[in-house]
């Protein structure tokens, strides 16, 4: 099996080392693992692509490249330059430092990399490690992802729904709970949740030179979502597995809207 890995935390991120271990185990001794990851951190870029300017790409070692672009850019660079059109069998994106549950999924470059792979017709899984008070006390804050990641990916490859013929094929968003590996209770298929009463915001600051700047500020990450949705099951100690697709149509209101506007 040929596996491509990327992330949004950058080529030197510790989560990418965890993902390399997972991908190597999945690929097996006869397989290949290729890394094309951002040269610098790209958190929060979503499914952004560098459409209006070129990007530099550099080979850092065998099967290992850094690109000055987003995770989606890295997937495109891998498919159409690094791999010379020889598509991988699987794309893994992550392991992100921090959760991509609930509304975070809409901003996530980790999700963006997996989404681009799915749009290119390749099975893809995004993996993220929820952080919190318990993980901060661990020698390895990625312990839950490191210990349980391979089994989750194998389960999805063996039993997951992939809809290879669909225009907008399914990809998966996996979030590991903010607990030690031994405290993980299992995994649950969960819908994307929504953290109520919290959101991203802009926080103004004045620089020493007197210029005004804005920092984008995240909301509280441990606010629970509705029972059974991703962040809620993560905070209860479970790995969340959320099937996603890039189709943004609100299918549930199509018929009603057509009648209203007829």
Automatic annotation (TrEMBL):
Tell me which UniProt keywords the record has, alphabetically: Cytoplasm, Hydrolase, Metal-binding, Nucleotide-binding
Q: Domain (Survival protein SurE-like phosphatase/nucleotidase): give its ranges.
A: 3-196
Q: How is the cofactor bound?
A: Binds 1 divalent metal cation per subunit.
Give the UniProt entry's GO cellular component terms. cytoplasm
Enzymatic reactions: a ribonucleoside 5'-phosphate + H2O = a ribonucleoside + phosphate
Query: What is the name of the protein in this document?
Result: 5'-nucleotidase SurE
Pfam families for this protein: SurE
- Which amino acid positions bind a divalent metal cation, per UniProt? 8-9, 43, 96
Principal localization reads cytoplasm
InterPro entries assigned? SurE (IPR030048), SurE-like_Pase/nucleotidase (IPR002828), SurE-like_sf (IPR036523)
Q: What is its EC number?
A: 3.1.3.5
């Amino acid at each position: 099996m040929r596996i491509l890995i990327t992330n949004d935390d950058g080529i030197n991120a510790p989560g990418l080392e965890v993902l390399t271990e997972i991908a190597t185990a999945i690929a097996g001794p006869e397989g290949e693992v290729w890394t094309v990851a951002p040269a610098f951190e790209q958190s929060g870029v979503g499914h952004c692509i560098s459409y209006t300017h070129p990007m530099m790409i550099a080979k850092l070692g065998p099967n290992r490249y850094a690109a000055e672009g987003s995770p989606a850019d890295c997937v495109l660079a891998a498919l159409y330059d690094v791999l010379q059109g020889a598509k991988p069998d699987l794309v893994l994106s992550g392991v992100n430092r921090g959760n991509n549950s609930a509304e975070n999924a809409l901003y996530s470059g980790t999700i963006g990399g997996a989404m681009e792979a799915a749009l290119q017709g390749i099975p893809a899984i995004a993996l993220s490690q929820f952080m919190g008070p318990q993980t901060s006390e661990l020698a390895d804050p990625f312990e839950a992802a490191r210990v349980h990641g391979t089994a989750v990916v194998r389960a999805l490859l063996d039993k997951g729904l992939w809809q290879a013929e669909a225009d907008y094929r399914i990809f998966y968003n996996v979030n590991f709970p903010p607990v030690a590996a031994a405290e993980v209770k299992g995994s649950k298929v969960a819908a994307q949740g929504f953290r109520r009463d919290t959101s991203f915001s802009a926080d103004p600051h004045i620089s020493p030179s007197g210029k005004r700047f804005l920092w984008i500020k995240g909301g509280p990450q441990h606010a629970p979502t509705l029972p059974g949705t991703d962040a809620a099951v993560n905070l209860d100690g479970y790995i969340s597995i959320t099937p996603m697709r890039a189709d943004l149509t609100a299918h549930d209101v199509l018929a009603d809207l057509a009648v209203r506007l007829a």
